[in-house]
């Protein structure tokens, strides 16, 4: 059993010794095994393994058709049932992308290809990618999924919730976070400096997710980040990693989003209007529903008042619809 702790900063200490098998020893030196989930952040580890050019095994898992989660088999490998999981050649199980990267670099990067240029920056960016950006994209993903997959008529309420969350939280946070990364990268090729490093690997997943879901328009608003991403996908090791896996959303190009809700620099006002539209629709549906059932007059008048107020906010577009709707209620 390998009990040595992986070294976080390859510059600060020499990597653990690796016993290289001689021809008289066991026929094959044990290799690490990656437990890899389709369409997941584990794609980053396939990329790193390919960059290092080492021998490894992959066990691939497909997401379940029902809820797109990891299959229960992954729970047999790690108590969290999430990917990536790396089992070292010596049989030690490592979870968490940042820890797996640190282990792989410390153990196999003999040529210092990924040598950390500034370990404090590396730690900052690595934490930022996993903890800060992770919480942000999870929030956006949650409200997006609720707004897309809730049953009618709850879906209208969920859309309003998503728009409110964007308005008061995620739009600004995405903007601030991406601006921070754009400045951190500056004119360098990589976040690590001249050479690719762990921070680049860590940042690649959240940025893929954010870009491919159209939450940020990188081409338009963050051209340095868009160019950085292009440098990654052009790397032969990245391409080989994709071939070794079983599908990843990250193959999609960073798109120029046409979505009304794309969190571009000018979207605050649009976001606000969309919230109003969603609320307007929700009130209309409630009124329609309650017209069919006995409803106290005061409830209907409150809803009408709310609807009218919203229509005052949304100058123009809403007015005709409101007139139609009133006619419908009178009928
Ligand atoms: N913080 C972990 C996150 C691991 C994680 O959440 N993996 C996701 C894939 S992106 C997963 O396995 N999800 C499957 C599930 O939760 O069912 C890391 O950096 O490795």
Automatic annotation (TrEMBL):
<dbReference type="InterPro" id="IPR004045">
    <property type="entry name" value="Glutathione_S-Trfase_N"/>
</dbReference>
<comment type="similarity">
    <text>Belongs to the GST superfamily.</text>
</comment>
<dbReference type="Pfam" id="PF13409">
    <property type="entry name" value="GST_N_2"/>
</dbReference>
<dbReference type="InterPro" id="IPR036249">
    <property type="entry name" value="Thioredoxin-like_sf"/>
</dbReference>
<dbReference type="InterPro" id="IPR004046">
    <property type="entry name" value="GST_C"/>
</dbReference>
<feature type="domain" description="GST N-terminal">
    <location>
        <begin position="29"/>
        <end position="112"/>
    </location>
</feature>
<dbReference type="InterPro" id="IPR010987">
    <property type="entry name" value="Glutathione-S-Trfase_C-like"/>
</dbReference>
<protein>
    <recommendedName>
        <fullName>Glutathione S-transferase</fullName>
    </recommendedName>
</protein>
<dbReference type="InterPro" id="IPR036282">
    <property type="entry name" value="Glutathione-S-Trfase_C_sf"/>
</dbReference>
<dbReference type="InterPro" id="IPR040079">
    <property type="entry name" value="Glutathione_S-Trfase"/>
</dbReference>
<dbReference type="Pfam" id="PF00043">
    <property type="entry name" value="GST_C"/>
</dbReference>
<feature type="domain" description="GST C-terminal">
    <location>
        <begin position="110"/>
        <end position="254"/>
    </location>
</feature>
<feature type="region of interest" description="Disordered">
    <location>
        <begin position="1"/>
        <end position="33"/>
    </location>
</feature>
């Amino acid at each position: 059993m390998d009990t040595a702790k992986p070294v976080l900063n390859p510059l600060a200490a020499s990597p653990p010794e690796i016993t290289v098998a001689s021809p008289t020893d066991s026929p094959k030196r044990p290799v690490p095994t990656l437990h890899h989930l389709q369409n997941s952040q584990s794609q980053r580890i396939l990329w790193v393994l390919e960059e290092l050019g080492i021998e490894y095994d992959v066990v691939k898992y497909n997401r379940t058709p029902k809820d797109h989660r990891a299959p229960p088999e992954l729970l047999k490998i790690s108590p969290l049932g999430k990917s990536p999981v790396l089992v070292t050649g010596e049989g030690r199980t490592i979870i968490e992308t940042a820890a797996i990267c640190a282990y792989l670099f410390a153990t196999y990067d003999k040529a210092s290809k990924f040598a950390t240029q500034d370990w404090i920056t590396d730690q900052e960016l690595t934490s930022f990618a996993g903890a800060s950006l992770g919480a942000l994209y999870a929030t956006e993903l949650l409200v997006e999924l609720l707004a897309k997959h809730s049953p009618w008529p709850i879906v209208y309420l969920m859309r309003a919730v998503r728009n409110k969350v964007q308005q008061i939280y995620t739009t600004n946070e995405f903007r601030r976070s991406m601006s921070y990364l754009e400045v951190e990268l500056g004119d360098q090729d990589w976040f690590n400096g001249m050479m690719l490093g762990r921070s680049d690997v860590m940042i690649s997943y959240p940025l893929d997710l954010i870009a491919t879901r159209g939450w940020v328009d990188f081409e338009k608003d963050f051209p340095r980040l868009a160019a950085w991403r292009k440098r990654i996908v052009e790397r032969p090791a990245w391409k080989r990693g994709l071939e070794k896996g079983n599908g990843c959303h990250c193959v999609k190009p960073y798109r120029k989003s046409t979505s009304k809700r794309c969190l571009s620099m000018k979207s605050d006002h649009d976001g606000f209007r969309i919230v109003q539209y969603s609320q307007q629709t929700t009130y209309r549906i409630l009124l329609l529903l309650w017209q069919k059932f006995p409803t106290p007059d005061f409830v209907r008048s409150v809803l009408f008042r709310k609807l009218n107020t919203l229509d005052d906010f949304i100058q123009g577009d809403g007015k005709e619809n409101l007139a139609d709707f009133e006619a419908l209620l009178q009928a």
